[in-house]
Amino acid sequence: MNYKRLSKIGLGALLSSLPLFAIDAQVGKEIINSKCTACHVGNLDDGLSRISDQRKTPEGWYMTVKRMQREHGLSITKDQETNVIKYLSDYQGLTPDEIKPYAYTLDKTPNATEEGKDDLLVEMCVRCHSESRIGLQRRTAVEWKKLVHFHVGQFTSFEIQAKSRDKDWLGVAENEIVPYLAENFGKDKEKFDKYKKSIKDYKLPSKWITYGHTAGKGDFTATITLLNSSDESYALMMDYKYASGEELQARGIAVVYGGTEVRGSFVQNGVKYRQILHIDPKTNTFEGRMFESLHDENGSILKGIAKNSKEVSIVGIYPSAVKAGEKATISIVGTNLSGEVKLPSGLKVLKTVKHTENEIVLDVEANTKAKSLLGNIQVGSKVFKNSLAVYDKVDYLTVMPEYGTARIGGDDGKDKILKQYTTFEAIGFTNGKDGKKGTADDINLGVLPVKWSLEAFDEVAHEEKDLDYAGVIDANTGKFTPSISGPNTQRKLMTNNAGNLSAVATYKDGKEELSEKAHLMVTVPKYVNPPIN
Description:
alpha+beta
């Protein structure tokens, strides 16, 4: 990667700290045509058996290439592997609308729960892996059938497992599942070709105005910069500031697959991070996530828009609600925010701390007699409906995630099998005009400051003393840290330190107190964690 032209804008530190590499999709094509044809028939131009009949995300192609190395003796260098994945993702990838329903898996969104779209598919396939693993690839009917046969040959015991041995698994798979997969996840080359043609002249914007949120830490405003090198890699820069005032900088590298799928990496305070952005070229917006490489459960959600957007837009407002009689500093993040600002009734601007094209920061105060309402923000002539709340009381809480999973493991730096943390947040709500909980007019007040504690989930957990052994929760941040792996000689049968707990959020407002729980399962380590589970 050639960073010479970037040094003019103060990237000397970046140059010295990053591994330089070259990436070229066409080199990847040459490697595929030379190396893969040892087993596959044809070539990429006319059709290469098996390979040309599939489309996948970069993560999916990575898993394929690794399997070829592991199971079939493919000899390939790291640089060659990178170029192969680049070519396949560029020319046989997925469209943004195909990725979006399953982006949570690529983003490593913690505690994500799938809702099966088809009962038979869940019973036949999803009992072993996620539905997203299926949904994040496209194959011809013949290829789906071959995948079924691969499962029979590779996993010889699964046909005698529960939900398999009570049926003709292979017959059902071939006659019912394969047609379903071909219809819902068929290769559909025409669709992908049409999409590629539509973004042929798309130029990736270099600067992105971003809103982010880190569970347990709060909201932040960021500028993400992607500067294209002389090859097909990018310099990645991220400058961000939390509501708490903490300012951070990240410098790294990125690859853009298919013109819109960004995969970046950087080091922040000595910790390696990965960043995944899914760009919508029609709106020049993105959604994504960044997370620690070794602890993907620790991360931040990201939402952004190109800085050069012509739209008056808002990508984030924080806090999203102000309590009657209290003061707050509100940040409004977006593009072309140059006009006069009008806030919902009941809110008074005490001071304009900052007002630029991309961020408005206001010190405000809510009227002591203000009643709960979800109001509009107006910037210039643009009205953003139902974007900021004023409230007089909190009626109830919800805890996110509702069902959290943590895993016991070893200590960082001392053990290869690491712990998996989970962080809870309490979301406040008012009942709305109808006065009823859980109806459409309820107002989401955002994350509230609460105190966290743990309880045994049930009588069995109480008897097994799970609360004593499974781990601890930070009373202020809601981050749960599981215990070290077992065996534990102090527990019955010398079992490990797994446990079945409840995470309890307690919110106090004067004499009023609200409480809500979430289920927390502290379980055993996960030894296999591929990019797509």
